[in-house]
Amino acid sequence: MFCYHCQEAKKNKACDTTGICGKKAPLSSLHDLLVYVLKGLSFYAVKAREKNIVQPRLDQFTAESLYATVTNVNFDNAEFVRLISEAVQRRNALCQQLLEIYKQQDSTFEENPPKAAVWQYASIDEAAFIKQGEEFGVLSLEGENKDYHGLRESLIYGVKGLAALIEHCLVLGYEDHNLYDFMHYALDFSTIEHSLDDILAMNLQCGELGLKAMGLLDKANTETFGHPVPTKIHTDVWDKPAILVSGHDLQDLAELLEQTVGTGIDVYTHGEAVVAHAYPKFKKFFNLVGNYGGAWQDQKNQFAKFNGTILVTTNSLQQAKKTYQEKIFTTGMVGWDAIPHIEARKSQQSKNFAELIEQAKQNSPPTLLTETTITMGYGLQSLLALKDDIASAIQSDAIKRIIVIAGCDGRHKERRYYTQLAEALPQDCVILTCGETKYRFNNLDLGEINGIPRLLDAGQSNDFYALITFLQSLQKSLDATDLNAMPVSFNIAWYEQKTLVILWSLFNLGVKNVRLGPTLPPFFNADLLKMLTEKFALKGIDTVEADIEAMLVGE
Ligand code: SF4
User: Fold this and answer.
1) For 82-91, how does the pLDDT look when each residue is reduced to its tens digit (9 = 90+)?
2) Is the C-alpha dihedral spanning 293, 500, 4, 420 positive or negative?
3) What is the pTM of this model?
Protein backbone atom coordinates (compact mmCIF):
# COMPACT_ATOMS: atom_id res chain seq x y z
CA MET A 1 0.00 0.00 0.00
CA PHE A 2 1.18 3.49 -0.80
CA CYS A 3 -1.32 6.34 -0.53
CA TYR A 4 -0.58 10.04 -0.23
CA HIS A 5 -3.90 11.34 -1.48
CA CYS A 6 -4.70 13.58 1.41
CA GLN A 7 -3.30 15.95 4.02
CA GLU A 8 -3.36 13.25 6.70
CA ALA A 9 -0.93 10.91 4.94
CA LYS A 10 1.30 9.28 7.56
CA LYS A 11 4.13 11.67 8.60
CA ASN A 12 3.09 13.79 5.62
CA LYS A 13 4.71 11.17 3.38
CA ALA A 14 2.33 8.27 2.74
CA CYS A 15 0.15 5.71 4.46
CA ASP A 16 2.04 2.49 3.77
CA THR A 17 0.52 -0.17 6.02
CA THR A 18 -3.00 1.07 6.70
CA GLY A 19 -4.70 4.39 6.07
CA ILE A 20 -5.15 6.96 8.82
CA CYS A 21 -8.58 7.47 7.22
CA GLY A 22 -9.42 3.79 7.82
CA LYS A 23 -8.52 2.57 4.33
CA LYS A 24 -6.94 -0.87 4.59
CA ALA A 25 -4.27 -2.16 2.20
CA PRO A 26 -6.65 -4.42 0.19
CA LEU A 27 -9.05 -1.52 -0.37
CA SER A 28 -6.16 0.76 -1.36
CA SER A 29 -5.19 -1.85 -3.92
CA LEU A 30 -8.74 -1.95 -5.31
CA HIS A 31 -8.74 1.87 -5.57
CA ASP A 32 -5.48 1.69 -7.51
CA LEU A 33 -6.81 -0.96 -9.88
CA LEU A 34 -10.02 1.00 -10.49
CA VAL A 35 -8.09 4.18 -11.34
CA TYR A 36 -5.81 2.15 -13.63
CA VAL A 37 -8.78 0.64 -15.47
CA LEU A 38 -10.50 4.03 -15.74
CA LYS A 39 -7.39 5.42 -17.43
CA GLY A 40 -7.74 2.68 -20.04
CA LEU A 41 -11.44 3.41 -20.38
CA SER A 42 -10.66 7.09 -20.94
CA PHE A 43 -8.13 6.22 -23.64
CA TYR A 44 -11.04 4.85 -25.68
CA ALA A 45 -13.42 7.60 -24.60
CA VAL A 46 -10.98 10.18 -26.03
CA LYS A 47 -10.68 8.18 -29.27
CA ALA A 48 -14.47 7.84 -29.40
CA ARG A 49 -14.89 11.60 -29.13
CA GLU A 50 -12.72 11.98 -32.24
CA LYS A 51 -15.42 9.93 -33.99
CA ASN A 52 -18.23 11.95 -32.37
CA ILE A 53 -19.21 9.05 -30.15
CA VAL A 54 -20.24 10.13 -26.67
CA GLN A 55 -21.88 7.73 -24.23
CA PRO A 56 -23.49 9.80 -21.45
CA ARG A 57 -23.80 6.89 -19.04
CA LEU A 58 -20.14 5.97 -19.54
CA ASP A 59 -19.13 9.55 -18.72
CA GLN A 60 -21.29 9.56 -15.59
CA PHE A 61 -19.97 6.15 -14.56
CA THR A 62 -16.37 7.35 -14.88
CA ALA A 63 -17.02 10.42 -12.72
CA GLU A 64 -18.91 8.41 -10.08
CA SER A 65 -16.17 5.76 -9.97
CA LEU A 66 -13.38 8.32 -9.58
CA TYR A 67 -15.37 10.07 -6.90
CA ALA A 68 -15.70 6.76 -5.02
CA THR A 69 -11.88 6.79 -4.61
CA VAL A 70 -11.80 10.27 -3.03
CA THR A 71 -10.74 10.30 0.64
CA ASN A 72 -13.47 9.19 3.08
CA VAL A 73 -16.05 8.26 0.43
CA ASN A 74 -16.24 4.50 0.03
CA PHE A 75 -14.64 1.72 2.07
CA ASP A 76 -16.63 -1.21 0.67
CA ASN A 77 -14.44 -3.70 -1.21
CA ALA A 78 -17.44 -5.28 -2.92
CA GLU A 79 -18.42 -1.94 -4.42
CA PHE A 80 -14.98 -1.56 -5.98
CA VAL A 81 -15.07 -5.08 -7.40
CA ARG A 82 -18.35 -4.09 -9.07
CA LEU A 83 -16.94 -0.81 -10.38
CA ILE A 84 -13.73 -2.43 -11.73
CA SER A 85 -15.60 -5.15 -13.59
CA GLU A 86 -18.12 -2.66 -14.98
CA ALA A 87 -15.31 -0.36 -16.11
CA VAL A 88 -13.63 -3.21 -18.00
CA GLN A 89 -16.92 -4.27 -19.58
CA ARG A 90 -17.74 -0.73 -20.67
CA ARG A 91 -14.20 -0.25 -22.00
CA ASN A 92 -14.32 -3.51 -23.98
CA ALA A 93 -17.70 -2.59 -25.47
CA LEU A 94 -16.48 0.87 -26.48
CA CYS A 95 -13.26 -0.57 -27.93
CA GLN A 96 -15.30 -3.04 -30.00
CA GLN A 97 -17.56 -0.25 -31.25
CA LEU A 98 -14.54 1.81 -32.28
CA LEU A 99 -12.84 -1.10 -34.01
CA GLU A 100 -15.94 -1.63 -36.12
CA ILE A 101 -16.05 2.03 -37.09
CA TYR A 102 -12.37 2.03 -38.02
CA LYS A 103 -12.93 -1.15 -40.03
CA GLN A 104 -15.86 0.38 -41.91
CA GLN A 105 -13.69 3.40 -42.69
CA ASP A 106 -10.88 1.10 -43.78
CA SER A 107 -8.45 2.46 -41.23
CA THR A 108 -6.90 1.17 -38.00
CA PHE A 109 -5.73 2.51 -34.69
CA GLU A 110 -2.29 4.01 -35.21
CA GLU A 111 -1.38 4.12 -31.57
CA ASN A 112 -0.29 1.35 -29.29
CA PRO A 113 -2.91 1.45 -26.56
CA PRO A 114 -1.49 1.89 -23.06
CA LYS A 115 -1.39 -1.25 -20.95
CA ALA A 116 -4.24 0.13 -18.85
CA ALA A 117 -6.44 -0.02 -21.95
CA VAL A 118 -5.87 -3.71 -22.57
CA TRP A 119 -5.80 -5.10 -19.04
CA GLN A 120 -8.36 -7.90 -18.63
CA TYR A 121 -9.48 -9.99 -15.71
CA ALA A 122 -9.77 -13.77 -15.82
CA SER A 123 -12.76 -13.75 -13.49
CA ILE A 124 -14.52 -11.27 -11.24
CA ASP A 125 -12.76 -12.10 -8.04
CA GLU A 126 -11.98 -9.78 -5.13
CA ALA A 127 -8.76 -11.52 -4.05
CA ALA A 128 -7.42 -11.53 -7.62
CA PHE A 129 -8.32 -7.87 -8.09
CA ILE A 130 -6.53 -6.96 -4.86
CA LYS A 131 -3.40 -8.78 -6.02
CA GLN A 132 -3.57 -7.14 -9.44
CA GLY A 133 -4.05 -3.71 -7.89
CA GLU A 134 -0.75 -4.09 -6.03
CA GLU A 135 0.97 -3.91 -9.43
CA PHE A 136 -0.68 -0.63 -10.33
CA GLY A 137 -0.10 1.48 -7.24
CA VAL A 138 1.44 4.94 -7.29
CA LEU A 139 5.03 3.68 -7.09
CA SER A 140 4.76 0.66 -9.30
CA LEU A 141 3.64 1.86 -12.70
CA GLU A 142 5.94 0.43 -15.27
CA GLY A 143 8.80 2.29 -16.90
CA GLU A 144 8.42 5.53 -15.01
CA ASN A 145 10.90 8.07 -13.82
CA LYS A 146 10.45 8.21 -10.03
CA ASP A 147 10.35 12.01 -10.01
CA TYR A 148 7.34 11.86 -12.25
CA HIS A 149 5.00 10.13 -9.76
CA GLY A 150 4.20 13.28 -7.80
CA LEU A 151 3.47 15.31 -10.92
CA ARG A 152 1.16 12.70 -12.36
CA GLU A 153 -0.61 12.08 -9.06
CA SER A 154 -1.19 15.79 -8.55
CA LEU A 155 -3.20 15.79 -11.76
CA ILE A 156 -5.04 12.56 -10.90
CA TYR A 157 -6.06 13.93 -7.48
CA GLY A 158 -7.25 17.15 -9.08
CA VAL A 159 -9.35 15.12 -11.52
CA LYS A 160 -10.77 13.12 -8.62
CA GLY A 161 -11.82 16.41 -7.00
CA LEU A 162 -13.35 17.48 -10.31
CA ALA A 163 -15.19 14.14 -10.57
CA ALA A 164 -16.65 14.70 -7.09
CA LEU A 165 -18.03 18.06 -8.21
CA ILE A 166 -19.41 16.51 -11.41
CA GLU A 167 -21.18 13.87 -9.31
CA HIS A 168 -22.70 16.49 -7.00
CA CYS A 169 -24.05 18.35 -10.08
CA LEU A 170 -25.35 15.12 -11.58
CA VAL A 171 -27.45 14.37 -8.50
CA LEU A 172 -29.44 17.53 -9.32
CA GLY A 173 -29.57 16.73 -13.04
CA TYR A 174 -26.92 19.24 -14.19
CA GLU A 175 -24.12 18.29 -16.58
CA ASP A 176 -21.55 19.98 -18.82
CA HIS A 177 -19.88 17.89 -21.52
CA ASN A 178 -16.69 20.00 -21.26
CA LEU A 179 -16.13 18.60 -17.77
CA TYR A 180 -16.42 15.01 -18.97
CA ASP A 181 -14.19 15.75 -21.98
CA PHE A 182 -11.44 17.07 -19.73
CA MET A 183 -11.82 14.23 -17.20
CA HIS A 184 -11.21 11.62 -19.92
CA TYR A 185 -8.47 13.65 -21.56
CA ALA A 186 -6.60 14.07 -18.27
CA LEU A 187 -6.86 10.39 -17.34
CA ASP A 188 -5.61 9.38 -20.77
CA PHE A 189 -2.86 12.03 -20.59
CA SER A 190 -1.63 10.53 -17.32
CA THR A 191 -0.77 7.18 -18.91
CA ILE A 192 2.42 8.53 -20.47
CA GLU A 193 5.16 10.84 -19.23
CA HIS A 194 5.12 14.52 -20.15
CA SER A 195 7.29 17.54 -19.48
CA LEU A 196 6.87 19.52 -16.28
CA ASP A 197 5.46 22.42 -18.31
CA ASP A 198 2.84 20.21 -19.94
CA ILE A 199 1.70 18.63 -16.72
CA LEU A 200 1.56 22.03 -15.03
CA ALA A 201 -0.65 23.25 -17.89
CA MET A 202 -2.97 20.28 -17.36
CA ASN A 203 -3.21 20.96 -13.64
CA LEU A 204 -4.05 24.59 -14.38
CA GLN A 205 -6.74 23.47 -16.80
CA CYS A 206 -8.07 21.18 -14.09
CA GLY A 207 -8.35 24.29 -11.88
CA GLU A 208 -10.16 26.18 -14.63
CA LEU A 209 -12.63 23.34 -15.21
CA GLY A 210 -12.97 22.83 -11.46
CA LEU A 211 -14.16 26.40 -11.02
CA LYS A 212 -16.61 25.84 -13.90
CA ALA A 213 -17.88 22.71 -12.11
CA MET A 214 -18.31 24.71 -8.90
CA GLY A 215 -20.23 27.32 -10.92
CA LEU A 216 -22.47 24.61 -12.35
CA LEU A 217 -23.12 23.28 -8.86
CA ASP A 218 -23.96 26.79 -7.67
CA LYS A 219 -26.47 27.04 -10.54
CA ALA A 220 -27.87 23.59 -9.70
CA ASN A 221 -28.24 24.42 -6.01
CA THR A 222 -29.71 27.90 -6.46
CA GLU A 223 -32.13 26.87 -9.23
CA THR A 224 -33.29 23.93 -7.14
CA PHE A 225 -33.29 25.39 -3.62
CA GLY A 226 -33.23 29.19 -4.15
CA HIS A 227 -30.46 31.68 -3.37
CA PRO A 228 -29.01 31.34 0.15
CA VAL A 229 -29.81 34.17 2.52
CA PRO A 230 -27.92 35.13 5.69
CA THR A 231 -29.30 32.85 8.38
CA LYS A 232 -28.65 32.29 12.08
CA ILE A 233 -28.50 28.57 12.73
CA HIS A 234 -29.12 27.02 16.14
CA THR A 235 -26.72 24.42 17.49
CA ASP A 236 -28.70 23.38 20.57
CA VAL A 237 -31.01 20.35 20.65
CA TRP A 238 -34.74 19.77 20.90
CA ASP A 239 -36.49 17.01 22.79
CA LYS A 240 -37.61 14.61 20.06
CA PRO A 241 -35.94 11.58 18.40
CA ALA A 242 -33.90 12.76 15.47
CA ILE A 243 -31.97 12.05 12.28
CA LEU A 244 -28.60 13.66 11.55
CA VAL A 245 -27.65 14.28 7.90
CA SER A 246 -23.96 14.70 7.08
CA GLY A 247 -22.34 15.54 3.74
CA HIS A 248 -22.97 17.81 0.75
CA ASP A 249 -26.04 16.21 -0.82
CA LEU A 250 -28.90 18.67 -0.38
CA GLN A 251 -31.26 16.58 -2.53
CA ASP A 252 -30.99 13.67 -0.09
CA LEU A 253 -31.71 16.05 2.76
CA ALA A 254 -34.73 17.57 0.99
CA GLU A 255 -36.24 14.13 0.27
CA LEU A 256 -35.62 12.94 3.82
CA LEU A 257 -37.29 16.07 5.19
CA GLU A 258 -40.35 15.51 2.96
CA GLN A 259 -40.60 11.95 4.26
CA THR A 260 -40.22 12.89 7.93
CA VAL A 261 -42.89 15.62 8.01
CA GLY A 262 -45.53 14.62 10.59
CA THR A 263 -43.55 11.65 11.93
CA GLY A 264 -42.45 13.40 15.12
CA ILE A 265 -38.80 13.21 14.08
CA ASP A 266 -36.51 16.22 14.05
CA VAL A 267 -33.74 16.53 11.47
CA TYR A 268 -30.33 18.13 12.12
CA THR A 269 -27.46 18.89 9.77
CA HIS A 270 -23.81 18.03 10.33
CA GLY A 271 -20.58 19.10 8.59
CA GLU A 272 -21.07 20.47 5.08
CA ALA A 273 -24.86 19.93 5.21
CA VAL A 274 -25.20 22.97 7.50
CA VAL A 275 -25.57 25.25 4.47
CA ALA A 276 -29.09 23.87 3.86
CA HIS A 277 -30.49 26.13 6.58
CA ALA A 278 -29.67 29.16 4.41
CA TYR A 279 -31.53 27.97 1.29
CA PRO A 280 -35.15 29.21 0.99
CA LYS A 281 -36.50 25.79 0.01
CA PHE A 282 -35.38 24.31 3.34
CA LYS A 283 -36.97 27.04 5.42
CA LYS A 284 -40.42 25.53 4.92
CA PHE A 285 -39.39 22.40 6.86
CA PHE A 286 -40.19 23.06 10.52
CA ASN A 287 -38.62 19.72 11.44
CA LEU A 288 -35.18 20.90 10.21
CA VAL A 289 -34.30 22.20 13.64
CA GLY A 290 -30.57 22.97 13.71
CA ASN A 291 -26.98 21.95 13.18
CA TYR A 292 -25.39 19.34 15.44
CA GLY A 293 -21.63 19.22 15.96
CA GLY A 294 -18.94 20.45 13.63
CA ALA A 295 -16.55 19.15 11.02
CA TRP A 296 -16.16 15.56 9.80
CA GLN A 297 -13.19 14.61 11.98
CA ASP A 298 -15.21 15.01 15.18
CA GLN A 299 -17.93 12.61 14.05
CA LYS A 300 -16.95 9.63 16.21
CA ASN A 301 -17.53 11.62 19.36
CA GLN A 302 -20.48 13.63 18.06
CA PHE A 303 -22.39 10.81 16.32
CA ALA A 304 -22.20 8.78 19.55
CA LYS A 305 -23.78 11.64 21.52
CA PHE A 306 -26.45 12.29 18.92
CA ASN A 307 -28.35 9.16 20.05
CA GLY A 308 -30.40 9.18 16.85
CA THR A 309 -30.06 7.80 13.33
CA ILE A 310 -27.35 9.19 11.03
CA LEU A 311 -27.24 9.47 7.24
CA VAL A 312 -23.89 10.12 5.51
CA THR A 313 -24.46 11.41 1.97
CA THR A 314 -21.00 12.35 0.66
CA ASN A 315 -17.31 12.26 1.53
CA SER A 316 -16.76 12.49 5.28
CA LEU A 317 -17.23 8.94 6.50
CA GLN A 318 -15.09 7.39 9.23
CA GLN A 319 -15.28 3.88 10.63
CA ALA A 320 -18.33 3.77 12.90
CA LYS A 321 -17.86 3.22 16.62
CA LYS A 322 -19.82 0.41 18.29
CA THR A 323 -21.89 3.03 20.12
CA TYR A 324 -23.63 4.14 16.91
CA GLN A 325 -22.78 1.41 14.40
CA GLU A 326 -26.37 0.15 14.41
CA LYS A 327 -27.72 3.63 13.72
CA ILE A 328 -25.68 4.85 10.75
CA PHE A 329 -26.66 4.60 7.06
CA THR A 330 -24.82 5.60 3.89
CA THR A 331 -26.17 6.62 0.50
CA GLY A 332 -24.94 7.77 -2.92
CA MET A 333 -21.34 6.77 -3.65
CA VAL A 334 -20.54 6.61 0.07
CA GLY A 335 -20.21 3.17 1.62
CA TRP A 336 -18.69 0.92 4.27
CA ASP A 337 -19.24 -2.81 4.08
CA ALA A 338 -20.80 -3.14 7.56
CA ILE A 339 -23.14 -0.16 7.17
CA PRO A 340 -26.61 -0.39 5.54
CA HIS A 341 -26.87 1.57 2.29
CA ILE A 342 -29.93 3.49 1.06
CA GLU A 343 -30.35 2.62 -2.61
CA ALA A 344 -30.15 5.14 -5.45
CA ARG A 345 -33.33 6.91 -6.46
CA LYS A 346 -35.18 5.47 -9.42
CA SER A 347 -35.97 7.89 -12.23
CA GLN A 348 -38.57 10.49 -11.25
CA GLN A 349 -38.75 9.06 -7.73
CA SER A 350 -37.32 10.00 -4.35
CA LYS A 351 -34.99 7.74 -2.40
CA ASN A 352 -36.78 5.55 0.09
CA PHE A 353 -35.75 6.52 3.63
CA ALA A 354 -38.49 4.46 5.36
CA GLU A 355 -36.08 2.06 7.11
CA LEU A 356 -34.06 4.91 8.50
CA ILE A 357 -37.15 6.83 9.64
CA GLU A 358 -38.67 3.78 11.36
CA GLN A 359 -35.42 3.21 13.23
CA ALA A 360 -35.16 6.88 14.23
CA LYS A 361 -38.54 6.73 16.02
CA GLN A 362 -37.05 4.34 18.62
CA ASN A 363 -34.17 6.64 19.59
CA SER A 364 -33.66 9.11 22.43
CA PRO A 365 -33.28 12.82 21.68
CA PRO A 366 -29.75 14.11 21.07
CA THR A 367 -27.42 15.06 23.93
CA LEU A 368 -26.62 18.77 24.01
CA LEU A 369 -23.17 19.71 22.66
CA THR A 370 -23.31 23.51 22.38
CA GLU A 371 -25.90 26.27 22.59
CA THR A 372 -24.45 28.87 20.26
CA THR A 373 -25.71 30.10 16.91
CA ILE A 374 -23.68 30.27 13.71
CA THR A 375 -24.43 32.58 10.80
CA MET A 376 -24.01 31.67 7.16
CA GLY A 377 -25.75 32.04 3.81
CA TYR A 378 -23.49 34.60 2.15
CA GLY A 379 -23.85 32.94 -1.24
CA LEU A 380 -23.15 34.88 -4.40
CA GLN A 381 -26.36 36.91 -4.43
CA SER A 382 -26.00 37.93 -0.75
CA LEU A 383 -22.34 38.82 -1.22
CA LEU A 384 -23.13 40.93 -4.27
CA ALA A 385 -25.78 42.75 -2.24
CA LEU A 386 -22.96 43.83 0.12
CA LYS A 387 -20.52 44.71 -2.67
CA ASP A 388 -21.08 48.49 -2.76
CA ASP A 389 -20.79 48.76 1.02
CA ILE A 390 -17.61 46.67 1.03
CA ALA A 391 -16.12 48.70 -1.86
CA SER A 392 -16.87 51.95 0.03
CA ALA A 393 -15.38 50.55 3.23
CA ILE A 394 -12.21 49.58 1.36
CA GLN A 395 -11.99 53.01 -0.28
CA SER A 396 -12.39 54.74 3.09
CA ASP A 397 -9.84 52.40 4.72
CA ALA A 398 -12.47 51.04 7.12
CA ILE A 399 -11.67 47.62 5.63
CA LYS A 400 -7.93 47.15 5.13
CA ARG A 401 -7.91 43.60 3.89
CA ILE A 402 -10.12 40.63 3.04
CA ILE A 403 -8.68 37.29 4.13
CA VAL A 404 -10.13 34.23 2.43
CA ILE A 405 -9.82 31.26 4.82
CA ALA A 406 -11.42 28.40 2.93
CA GLY A 407 -11.24 24.64 2.51
CA CYS A 408 -11.35 21.57 4.72
CA ASP A 409 -10.95 20.79 8.37
CA GLY A 410 -9.02 17.81 9.72
CA ARG A 411 -7.47 16.14 12.73
CA HIS A 412 -4.04 17.76 12.94
CA LYS A 413 -3.54 19.90 16.02
CA GLU A 414 -1.71 22.43 13.82
CA ARG A 415 -5.14 23.40 12.53
CA ARG A 416 -5.58 25.47 15.69
CA TYR A 417 -3.71 27.98 13.53
CA TYR A 418 -6.98 28.81 11.74
CA THR A 419 -8.80 29.65 15.00
CA GLN A 420 -5.87 31.73 16.20
CA LEU A 421 -5.63 33.47 12.84
CA ALA A 422 -9.31 34.46 12.90
CA GLU A 423 -8.95 35.71 16.48
CA ALA A 424 -5.74 37.64 15.85
CA LEU A 425 -6.63 39.39 12.59
CA PRO A 426 -6.87 43.17 13.02
CA GLN A 427 -10.37 44.54 13.50
CA ASP A 428 -10.28 46.15 10.04
CA CYS A 429 -10.03 42.77 8.26
CA VAL A 430 -12.97 40.79 6.91
CA ILE A 431 -12.92 36.98 6.57
CA LEU A 432 -14.56 35.23 3.62
CA THR A 433 -14.96 31.52 4.18
CA CYS A 434 -16.49 28.31 2.83
CA GLY A 435 -16.02 24.61 3.52
CA GLU A 436 -15.50 22.90 6.85
CA THR A 437 -12.49 24.94 7.92
CA LYS A 438 -15.11 27.47 9.11
CA TYR A 439 -15.81 25.25 12.12
CA ARG A 440 -12.46 26.44 13.48
CA PHE A 441 -13.84 29.97 13.95
CA ASN A 442 -17.54 30.24 13.09
CA ASN A 443 -18.52 30.34 16.77
CA LEU A 444 -16.42 33.47 17.39
CA ASP A 445 -18.11 36.83 17.66
CA LEU A 446 -16.00 38.84 15.23
CA GLY A 447 -18.34 41.83 15.07
CA GLU A 448 -18.98 44.15 12.13
CA ILE A 449 -17.34 46.96 10.14
CA ASN A 450 -19.84 49.68 9.17
CA GLY A 451 -22.64 47.10 9.46
CA ILE A 452 -20.74 44.51 7.35
CA PRO A 453 -20.18 41.24 9.27
CA ARG A 454 -16.46 40.51 9.67
CA LEU A 455 -17.16 36.85 8.95
CA LEU A 456 -18.99 36.05 5.70
CA ASP A 457 -19.61 32.32 5.22
CA ALA A 458 -20.66 31.29 1.69
CA GLY A 459 -21.34 27.62 2.53
CA GLN A 460 -19.76 24.40 1.26
CA SER A 461 -16.24 24.09 -0.17
CA ASN A 462 -17.73 24.26 -3.70
CA ASP A 463 -19.18 27.67 -2.79
CA PHE A 464 -15.65 28.92 -3.32
CA TYR A 465 -17.15 29.78 -6.71
CA ALA A 466 -19.33 32.41 -4.97
CA LEU A 467 -16.30 33.89 -3.20
CA ILE A 468 -14.24 34.15 -6.40
CA THR A 469 -17.11 35.52 -8.50
CA PHE A 470 -17.85 38.11 -5.82
CA LEU A 471 -14.18 39.13 -5.59
CA GLN A 472 -13.94 39.45 -9.37
CA SER A 473 -16.99 41.71 -9.32
CA LEU A 474 -15.50 43.74 -6.45
CA GLN A 475 -12.28 44.00 -8.45
CA LYS A 476 -14.21 45.74 -11.23
CA SER A 477 -15.88 48.10 -8.76
CA LEU A 478 -12.46 49.04 -7.38
CA ASP A 479 -10.89 49.34 -10.85
CA ALA A 480 -8.21 46.86 -9.83
CA THR A 481 -6.27 45.22 -12.65
CA ASP A 482 -6.54 41.70 -11.24
CA LEU A 483 -7.06 39.81 -7.99
CA ASN A 484 -3.42 40.39 -7.03
CA ALA A 485 -4.06 44.13 -7.10
CA MET A 486 -6.89 43.76 -4.60
CA PRO A 487 -6.54 43.93 -0.80
CA VAL A 488 -7.20 40.18 -0.64
CA SER A 489 -5.14 37.26 0.69
CA PHE A 490 -5.94 33.59 0.24
CA ASN A 491 -5.21 31.14 3.05
CA ILE A 492 -6.42 27.69 1.99
CA ALA A 493 -6.76 24.75 4.39
CA TRP A 494 -6.66 21.47 2.51
CA TYR A 495 -7.47 17.91 3.43
CA GLU A 496 -8.89 16.10 0.43
CA GLN A 497 -8.94 16.33 -3.33
CA LYS A 498 -11.71 18.89 -3.87
CA THR A 499 -9.60 21.51 -2.12
CA LEU A 500 -6.80 20.81 -4.58
CA VAL A 501 -9.20 21.95 -7.29
CA ILE A 502 -9.65 25.22 -5.36
CA LEU A 503 -5.88 25.64 -5.19
CA TRP A 504 -5.38 25.01 -8.91
CA SER A 505 -8.28 27.32 -9.76
CA LEU A 506 -6.44 30.12 -7.94
CA PHE A 507 -3.21 29.39 -9.81
CA ASN A 508 -5.15 29.34 -13.06
CA LEU A 509 -6.43 32.83 -12.24
CA GLY A 510 -2.81 33.90 -11.68
CA VAL A 511 -3.32 34.54 -7.95
CA LYS A 512 -0.05 34.88 -6.09
CA ASN A 513 0.99 34.43 -2.45
CA VAL A 514 -1.60 31.75 -1.72
CA ARG A 515 -0.96 30.08 1.64
CA LEU A 516 -1.68 26.36 1.82
CA GLY A 517 -1.79 24.51 5.12
CA PRO A 518 -1.53 23.00 7.54
CA THR A 519 1.10 21.11 5.50
CA LEU A 520 1.99 21.13 1.82
CA PRO A 521 0.90 18.07 -0.21
CA PRO A 522 3.41 15.22 -0.02
CA PHE A 523 3.04 14.62 -3.77
CA PHE A 524 4.20 18.14 -4.62
CA ASN A 525 7.74 17.02 -5.34
CA ALA A 526 10.71 19.36 -5.33
CA ASP A 527 10.48 20.29 -9.04
CA LEU A 528 6.79 21.10 -8.90
CA LEU A 529 7.12 23.01 -5.64
CA LYS A 530 9.98 25.07 -7.07
CA MET A 531 7.91 25.92 -10.10
CA LEU A 532 4.83 26.85 -8.04
CA THR A 533 6.95 28.99 -5.75
CA GLU A 534 8.59 30.81 -8.66
CA LYS A 535 5.43 31.30 -10.71
CA PHE A 536 2.82 31.84 -7.99
CA ALA A 537 4.77 32.47 -4.77
CA LEU A 538 2.94 29.53 -3.15
CA LYS A 539 3.61 29.39 0.59
CA GLY A 540 3.05 27.03 3.47
CA ILE A 541 1.74 28.48 6.70
CA ASP A 542 4.08 30.06 9.28
CA THR A 543 3.20 31.46 12.70
CA VAL A 544 -0.05 33.41 12.92
CA GLU A 545 1.87 36.62 13.67
CA ALA A 546 4.26 36.23 10.74
CA ASP A 547 1.47 35.35 8.33
CA ILE A 548 -0.72 38.27 9.40
CA GLU A 549 2.20 40.67 9.03
CA ALA A 550 2.93 39.35 5.53
CA MET A 551 -0.69 39.19 4.37
CA LEU A 552 -1.34 42.77 5.45
CA VAL A 553 1.32 43.95 2.99
CA GLY A 554 0.12 41.64 0.24
CA GLU A 555 2.79 38.98 0.59
FE1 SF4 B 1 -3.71 7.92 4.17
FE2 SF4 B 1 -5.14 9.97 3.25
FE3 SF4 B 1 -4.60 7.89 1.69
FE4 SF4 B 1 -6.32 7.65 3.71
S5 SF4 B 1 -6.56 8.92 1.85
S6 SF4 B 1 -4.74 6.19 3.15
S7 SF4 B 1 -5.34 8.97 5.25
S8 SF4 B 1 -3.13 9.33 2.53
Assistant:
1) 999 999 999 9
2) negative
3) 0.96
